[in-house]
Write a structure and sequence with these properties.
5 strands
Length: 182
């Protein structure tokens, strides 16, 4: 029965030309743990780029930012695509997007680039979580949140330049562009 539902969802998405499928957080966690079992330093001092992952929506971004210190990342870069067909429908990084200033980029209007170079508990509640990330990004404290010049397409010159800076790419590209992506 679950298989039938999955096939039905994929068939409906194909008809609607909808490529936006999100990888579950637990699946990302399980896969990354396999890499870490093989080599605990897989991500240490590495630049990880999630080039098809809207930071407002992506569980890849969520996983890597929440595990930034544990993994020993040097940088986490993520870029979003404009227009996002699913903006503000998945991960609520900033809660009500009315709190966002237009100059920082609103998820439905601009493609955004996030470069994370430091994460820590800044609200003093004793734990590091997405609220801390949101506060750090809003204040641009040791991290960067800027609109992209273009639309955030992974094939754009702007995103290719970010790709050249990265050591590891982890993403879920649009299924219809998978061959081109690889």
């Amino acid at each position: 029965m679950a298989r039938e539902a999955s096939v039905k969802n994929l068939t409906n998405a194909k008809r609607a030309k909808n490529d936006e499928f999100y990888t579950q957080f637990i699946d990302i966690q399980k896969e990354i743990e396999k890499y870490l079992d093989y080599d605990p330093n897989t991500f240490r001092n590495k630049v990880v780029y999630c080039n098809c992952d809207d930071p407002f929506e992506s569980n890849f971004f969520r996983y890597f930012v929440l595990n930034y210190n544990k993994l020993g990342l040097k940088l986490l870069i993520t870029t979003s695509y404009k227009p996002s067909p699913v903006a503000n429908t998945q991960l609520k990084l900033f809660g009500d997007d009315k709190t966002l200033k237009k100059s920082k980029g609103r998820p439905k209007i601009t493609a955004n680039k996030f470069i994370i170079s430091e994460v820590k508990d800044i609200d003093g509640d004793g734990e590091f979580n997405l609220k801390d990330v949101a506060k750090q990004l809003k204040a641009n404290k040791n991290n960067e949140w800027t609109p992209l010049e273009g639309d955030g397409d992974f094939r754009s010159n702007e995103c290719i330049e970010l790709l050249k800076q990265s050591d590891i790419v982890v993403t879920n590209p649009p299924f219809s562009l998978f061959r081109e992506y690889v």
